[in-house]
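Model the whole thing, not chain by chain.
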Amino acid sequence: MSDWITITIDGKEIKAKKGELLTAAAKRGGIEIPVFCSHPKLDPLGACRMCLVEAETRRGKALITACTTPVNDGAVYYYNSERARDARQGTLELILINHPLDCPICDKGGECPLQDQTLEHGPGHSHFWEEKTHKTKHYPLSDLIMLDQERCIVCWRCIRYLQEWEDKPQLGLFHRGGETVIDKFPAGKFDAATSGSVIDICPVGALTNRLSRFSYRPWELDKTDSICTHCGQGCNLRIDSRSHRVRRNVARENPAVNDEWICDKGRFATGFSYHPERLQQPLARMNGKLEPVSWQEAIQQIVAGLQNVSKEHGPEAVGALGSAKLSNEANYLLGKFMRGMVGSNNVDYREGSAVLADPRGLPALGDVHDADLIVLMGADPSEEMPVLANFIKRAAKRRGVKLIIVHPRRIELSRYPGIHLAPMPGQEVDLFDALTRASLQAGGEAIPGWLPAEDGAWNTEDVRAAGQWLAQAQKPFIVYGADYAWGFGARDIVTALSNWAVAAGHDDRLGFLHAQANAQGAGDVGLLPNQLPGRRPLSDDEARSAIEALWQTRLPRQPGLGYGGMMAAAASGHLKAMIIMGADPVGEKPSDAAALDKLEFLVVQDLFLTETAIRADVVLPAASYVESEGSFTNTERRLQRAPRAVKPMAKSVPDWAILMHLAQAYWGELPASWQTLTIAAVFAEITRAVPQYAGMSWENMGAEGRQWQRSALEVGRELRSHDPGFDPTDRKYPFHLIIGNQLWDQGTTFAATTEMAHLGVMAARLHPSDAVRLQVTAGDRIRMHSGTGEITAPVVLDDSISPNSVFVPFSFLQAPVGELFDRFGQRTAVAISKVSN
Amino acid sequence: MLSESARTEMKTTMARYPRARSAILPALHIAQRQIGWLPNEVMDEIARIFDMEPMEVYAIAGFYNMFYKEPKGKFHLEICTNVPCMLRGAGEMADYLQEKLGIGFNETTSDGVFTLDHMECLGSCATAPVMSARRNQSAWARYYEGLSKEKIDAIIAELQTATELPPDHDESGPYHHDHHPQTNFLLARIDKPQSHTMASYLADDGYETARKTLQMAPDEAVGIVKAAGVRGRGGAGFPAGVKWGFLPKDVTPRYLVINADESEPGTFKDRLILQYDPHQLLEGAICTAWAIQAHYAFIYVRGEYAFAQRRLRTAIAEAKAKGFLGQNIFGSDFDLEVIVHSGAGAYICGEETALLSSLEGGRGHPRLKPPFPAVAGLYAKPTIINNVETIAHVRHVMEHGADWYRQWGSERSPGFQLISLSGQVKKPGVYEIPYGTTLRELIYDMAGGTLDDRPIKSIIPGGLSMPHILPDKLDTSIDFESIQAAGSLLGSGGVIVLCEGEDIVPLARRTVSFYREESCGKCSPCREGSGWLEKVLKRIEAGQGVPSDIDRLKHITKYIDQQSFCPFGPASVWGLQSTMRLFGDEFAATIAATNPEAQKPTIPARPTYRQYVGQPLENKLDDED
């Protein structure tokens, strides 16, 4: 291939890619040139002078920095020459003179590039007799990260990371010369969502993990390659534990998913696995109180409770909720238990049947890297998927890719060039219709008669430009998020936005951004009331017989109830028993307590004694994902393993294993079709039940996971008409309620890391002009009430919120926004009043 | 905290640059002029105006010495103690100032009137010792030159009591200068009354050359400069015409940047042109901008040159009014904006890529080469960076032609040059001489010999960065090749003369201190090594030197010299290396005399970091368990 050239290092010929840096070429040839400032994911700097080698030049041999030198064909280098070795020794001696050499108490000691390179390349002695320069030690940059300016060797990696990836330069150099220090703005923020990446890339112990420091030496750690389950991106990470406690997470490279970055939630929010309030043992209700019982007794009570209800009211009186935060195996077995043993199709999860996600999720996360246009609809990656947000920023900043953002708020990514369209809830379809028209016009295509007339409110320059951009783009990255996929009118919105993609000729590039770790997988494995595993409808006879053969049982044919249907049925007394696995309906909507209280029998398996669990008849302590094994399917259909990193806390048991026990007890013995005693065996069965997963195995998922083929599931898209938009507000309820995810929220798994509890500003956000109108100021409490309920919350004024709307984040304990709408009421209007003290 | 007028001025300034961020240094100057220093809140405000992270503003302000991070007195006095001033009694004057004001360096008098500091070279070495004074919350700043105790008494008295500010420059006119009988071009006009004005310049047929040049094809103009062989006068001596030829064809826009960051100790020639004949520079700039087809010319003037900046700005306004600058200059369809950009106290910004970093609105760190500025310079666009004097030469070459220029000097060093002569000579000053003049002719014939006719100990022929040479090289011809053959470099043409009787160790230490102070901190050898060298030399000065220190110094300088990021590194140690080579015995003798037992120095114990030791527990740093 013409791209390959030959270079010579120390007399050895090495094949190199034309123009790549000498450090990279040498590595391919087996020579690891030491570096500090250089990093494969950052622009070359050439500052530390560690990578010096000799090069043959027109003027004889010269010292050059390998990290800044692109290789040319026939170039000759000397890595091991006496002069090059001496030069590297010299650099190390100089770097070390003011370094404190406090390795024995440094977290980095044992995995420190400076230590390692001193051992391999250092001079072995120092000529330095003077007093070292003293700088600030133990300097908290944030609640999460500590800085030691003395250990810092001023390589700029952290600074460059924040510039080049986060585009949030909150760290910089201060002073100059020998006094140069890394610092943040005094009293300024250090709050980039992936700020912790600077710990991973610091080549010394200058930046350390404030939550985990001094709790391990690196060589004592048990290291487990795993993934993060805080969001749907599925970033790869390594869980480092000591004495069966997670000590820290560090990023693991997976170019297709997360490059080599993870966000601070993934890195630091590990508290859920060792929180003292974790459930320690099974509990059962006795005389109205939850009391500790043995596993055997708990399981027996569950079997008795479920069988009574089933016998008395029929199997359709039993329902189950799974969780998009739990593994494929747990959700699959819950579905199998409910359908195969109990005989009920009442299975769902919060992000399941109610959310009109593209069943194939996102085409591929990696598409963003060569996209020529980025379209975000009802999604806020900065809060929902910070690593993806960084990829988008990089595309915008480095490649000049334009963004089209359709979102009712001004989101962080709105600061990049492009077009921001902010339809209020209910108006979305009108906007997408206008965009559809604009794209069709740009492509010179016929306008279907049912598209509304051209002269609507969205007949704007921006809309015409956006329509044209998408029609002309070659490789657009187009995503929509949950905000547009559930609630009143969601079907019309999804139809309308799909129409736009179709009109622009990019329906194959339209994808859905799942905010939860396994929202894709739980659906794939069949935890939906109207679908069998493999996303096949219940009415698909062929599919049903295949599953019946696999499970060796008859399956109910009647479609089951979804999440909302089950809650309604519980309230009306038609649903009598429920298994709730890893979900907390009452926490999200306290008024659902009444419905659950009506159940004859409720089982909850969870990490904590949630608001839902305290109402249960039996509570089972589940092991967290780091204590379990399981596979997760991320938003781009990538199946990835999360192996067990630590042993389960106390008497907790992985969810999938709980279901195995339950099945055994329910049936009296474990039937032949349930002889899946290891996670690999469960997974093997899933690959037979889910056609898209065929050919995969626990082993062959490998370190970087495997994607199922998008072509394995057809989603026919064509231009379709739909109902018009609406305005939910009226004189009584004049404000639009805008709901969305916030990275630092109060969700169960995140809130368990108490050190991070105060990071998020949990408040209702109002535009300053509305605050004036309502006569409220920042810090006041407001009451928001809709037709169905009310909540109160403190107020923050925020001009990124559109006037006439109020933003309330999900997972806000004080103000459970679910109270404000019927089950699926996104696009609700509220009235706001000040709460007098 | 910023006043409305300051904000408006910032926004106007932003609009003048092709990219708003370039106005960050001007904005910091504006803010400091209003408030007197730069509190964090102000940097935060500026960050919002520029849509930057506050950290970026903070990091930029922290790089430049002229931006104050704490309040100063009403008058900030800074006395130069660098080598050229040191050789002319700056030490004594510095002591006297401290005694007189009753404060040490970096202190403010109790009445808040004076803050005193020592300072690196102010670019006025012919009038050493020299001090700069800046009035708080005002644009007033000036130099006080040729200091004596009496003068200091008078200055202090005047500043303390005067109700009106004194004039903002020394009204005695240009400092001493002279020329070779044949070459009097660059300085020909500066003694004329009002030489800096448009009227005076036009009376001498000013701007006719620019007008003529605009009639030529740009390539023709480049060809003339190339044929003349004008070498860069900033220090590296690279032929200007050849540099211009590196511009990639068809890549626009292109920029011209004129380096007026004259900071090399011992160099003070550009200041004469800027203060007394700015139109000469502007005319050269017009010729150059036309030749390279640039529509923006930035003149990066060191921040301390306040008076020069004022004169330059006035000259630009005059030229604009005449239609010589701005749109359609001289009635042509050629536009040229000239922007004076003030530095803020960072020697490294004289290095061309560091200058670009600074001009783009950043810390002045040098950048990787390649790409060279001619290919990707300012805003990653093709950029030509030339020194003030080089541009002035261009003006004369365009008037008289290449052959005229080549009648002086040699094949490789054609023409003439401004030499800044300082140190222990009778008539320090700027001398305009043809290449080929010898050091002896310069020092003895033109400058009248050494002070008290003392024998010369050594000569630094090209600014403080360059190696010393011994008086046996006095008959060396002043040109790039001959000085190099003699063991040094012509650099920026700053000749510093040192006489017998001066101790070499303090001189070497002071040299190293300058580079320690001015190191940008980017690369490890220079950042760490310059401080180490200073510590060793200070230890020797303090009588704790040991014989092995000689090897230690050589060891350190070797690495700084061979593996620093930019030319600053080698330049920072050539002086020390050469003095150790030429006067090694003197170092050894100093060590032997002050530490005869060769006692090893005490290696200081680590200080305690636990600042709360002995204090109540609640005061401890929050992370200490």
